[in-house]
Amino acid sequence: MLELADKESPHLFENNLAIMLTSCLQLESLSLKIRGFGVEVDACAFQSIIFFLPSTIKSLKLQPVLERDAFFLIRRIGRNLMETVQPPILTSSYYSSFNLRSLSLVLDVITDELLITITASLPFLVELDLEDRPNTEPLARLDLTSSGLQSLGSCHHLTGLSLTRCRHNHQGTFKRVNDMGMFLLSEGCKGLESVRLGGFSKVSDAGFAAILLSCHSLKKFEVRSASFLSDLAFHDLTGVPCALVEVRLLWCRLITSETVKKLASSRNLEVLDLGGCKSIADTCLRSISCLRKLTALNLTGADITDSGLSILAQGNLPIMNLCLRGCKRVTDKGISHLLCVGGTISQSLTTLDLGYMPGISDDGILTIAAAGIGIIDLCVRSCFYVTDASVEALARKQPDQEKSKQLRRLDLCNCIGLSVDSLRWVKRPSFRGLHWLGIGQTRLASKGNPVITEIHNERPWLTFCLDGCEIGCHDGWQFHESGFI
């Protein structure tokens, strides 16, 4: 995988990219992100990539790509594929066969014509991941409709589908896709094992339920920002074979605890992400506590309390990743309930997000440090009552832990109670395993701070994030220089 940033000539960049690709004769998987030239130039950077792609490519991910260039790319690959099936009398050395099975594109817009071209040119596709980021509302003839979804039925080998409209550039959704589009998709693609849908604001319970009920092999189901998705979509879930392993319902305001109780019937569930579903309450936590295979739980913004965490702690949940971000009714007492009763979760937890929680203070962090649990990633961003005492407690605890269980990433962004003096606890020998420290929007965030420079000289592998990125700067677009971001 390559993530490329460049401010040189776009033509020079394209030439260097071509040389690299023509030298990788056995490449099977290629993921390319490009930035640095400007939006339009970045999106045009892949115009000529098809001429240099090794024919061994099976998985291709490109970001960003203009829709018009995607047409050219897909048709060229499809043309090569057809020549493999029905070889012409004369073929040049260029037209070697492609065996593309997975395609992922981030585009300016997803249209019916694009989907139809993909299904016609790449009939053996197994995974398709398309995301668009339109700057304005697409015209009716240049948008995705139910007809486009229907065309996906031609890809008989398709097992993974992701269609999302990002809202970063424009607060838009797929307004021309309704329940009928989902009915057609569910009938044509019954072999789907993974479905990810984002921005389908006109689809109701009936449309989403059609996918759940028709795709009997479905293991992963994700829906984002669905205004009309409610508990009714999951009402009949207990009456059908359910192989669900991962369920993500993000920012679906009508989802309540009743949906969680229905999902709990899937005993194989490993990931449950309910981020932004604010009507989730304590009443469903007992059902969650019965999921013996659950390893990741996201309750961002949920209406749960300390009592609910006590119920969660009493179950045999092997949760490794727990997000309680924005749970305003959870306090330090809830953290104590969660970690100090000796339940399974206190032994398995490695990632904990307590960001934006007004009820968390030094007492909660001291509980974490004293519990002796193997937290690797800890986020307490925008916890205003976290002070230097928390940093000291975490620093003092680290030497007693095994290397594999040391804190690797710590997010203190916007913890306004911290003073510059807390940086002394980041020096050796404390935090021996720390690789990333987020201190944006705090008194610590100064590139000219001599203490930060001293620490960086001691630990060149430690990255200080001064810009408020999420933990680990996982979006991959920040610029790293001398240990700072």
Automatic annotation (TrEMBL):
Superkingdom to which the source organism belongs: Eukaryota
Matches recorded under Pfam families: DUF7885
Cleaved signal peptide residues: none
Coiled-coil residue spans: none
Domain F-box/LRR-repeat protein 15-like leucin rich repeat: 2-475
InterPro entries, sorted: FBXL15_LRR (IPR057207), Leu-rich_rpt_Cys-con_subtyp (IPR006553), LRR_dom_sf (IPR032675)
Protein name: F-box/LRR-repeat protein 15-like leucin rich repeat domain-containing protein
